[in-house]
Design goal:
Helix content is 33%, strand content 16%. The protein has eleven helices and 13 strands. The strands form two sheets. A seven-stranded parallel sheet has the order 3-2-1-4-5-6-7, sandwiched between helices. A six-stranded parallel sheet has the order 10-9-8-11-12-13, with helices on both faces.
């Protein structure tokens, strides 16, 4: 089976630090290669893969200000479709734009929808609903206007996350984009009301929000911002936390940090929105709450959670091996219909 894997070009695949879509694409690509599939990864030139790498831009546009995103996105996407006849299937992780090329080639295309950035992009998905194959990353993220081939949950390379049966730290953790959607401000409020230290890790995606709602509250050791954390330090920061605070204000499509935290044995306290009920079993590997007050009370009960349960959740449901096998099943189902 010959697969063209279309990755975004905001960041390297896999990313050095931040880049959740690119991280998932890398795990799928390398997993498919290990299983003997012939995979060509369309990504930035500095990407790393055991498959075949094809690129038109040397770096991601988030890492090089001289790269104009729209120009190089168009050049990148067109490369896949100009070579479409070389492949049995195209796996699109580049959102809606590649769909507009899909009817110009005979090669089938499966699109993993990594969430809807806005309802305004739905017209494109609706137009190509009958000629493409859509995969959702959670049942909560499905649009009633679209047909889906499957839901495939993201998986992680669980061997890169060390299980800690006991927390070695005394802190709570916020791990994600600094943005109102992610609830950084609420995480600070939760930690303060609980009388706990908070570490904040992530990229600043909304500078005004950071300046207004985060930076004024930074005071060691109570609230500390450590910036973006790479793979090596991520394991340590997640694993040593008492709990991960995930007070989101949007219907999150998945939530990789939730799964990564549980892989280390660290329970998650999350606002009950989007995919969170699909990832977290309330009272077993974390708590689903509705507001700051409930989150504070959940911290008081965090010792009730057996950290082994957190790890077992990931082992049974959210490994890269499970994800790759599920995608192979999707490919086989699509190709059998042709």
């Amino acid at each position: 089976m010959r697969i063209a894997m279309l990755s975004p070009v905001a960041w390297r695949t896999p990313p050095k630090d931040y880049g959740p879509w690119e991280r998932v694409v890398s795990l799928i690509t390398e997993g498919l290669v290990r299983k003997g599939l012939d995979v060509t990864l369309f990504a930035t030139g500095d990407s790393i893969t055991q498959g075949h790498l094809h690129s038109v831009t040397p770096k991601g546009y988030e890492e090089d200000p001289d790269i104009l995103p729209k120009v190089w996105e168009c050049l990148h996407i067109s490369e896949v479709f100009e070579r479409a006849e070389e492949f049995d299937l195209i796996h699109n992780h580049f959102d809606f734009l590649p769909l507009t090329y899909g009817r110009l080639v005979s090669t089938p295309m499966v699109t993993t929808i990594h969430g809807f950035s806005s309802p305004k992009i739905l017209p494109v998905y609706r137009k190509y609903n009958s000629s493409s194959y859509y995969v959702s990353i959670s049942n909560a993220d499905r649009s009633p206007d679209l047909s889906y081939t499957a839901t495939v949950y993201h998986g992680i390379d669980i061997e890169k996350f060390s299980f800690r049966a006991h927390s070695r730290g005394d802190y709570l953790l916020f791990f994600g984009r600094i943005h109102p959607d992610k609830g950084t401000k609420e995480a600070i409020e939760i930690a303060r009301q609980a009388g706990r230290r908070l570490i904040i890790a992530g990229i600043i995606q909304d500078r005004d929000y950071y300046d207004c709602c985060v930076e004024p509250h930074l005071k060691k050791p109570d609230v500390e911002f450590i910036g973006s954390v790479g793979p090596d330090r991520r394991n340590e920061v997640l694993g040593n936390a008492l709990a991960l605070l995930h007070p989101i204000h949007f219907a999150e499509p998945f939530g990789l940090s939730v799964v990564e935290s549980m892989a280390c044995g660290t329970p998650v306290i999350a606002f009950d929105k989007g995919s969170m009920p699909e990832l977290i079993e309330h009272g077993r590997d974390g708590f689903l709450v509705s507001n700051v007050g409930e989150a504070v009370r959940a911290i008081e009960r965090i010792g009730w959670i057996d950290r082994k349960n957190c790890r077992e959740t990931v082992e049974k449901r959210f490994t890269s091996e499970i994800m790759v096998n599920n995608y192979i099943g999707v490919y086989e189902e699509i190709l059998a219909q042709l």
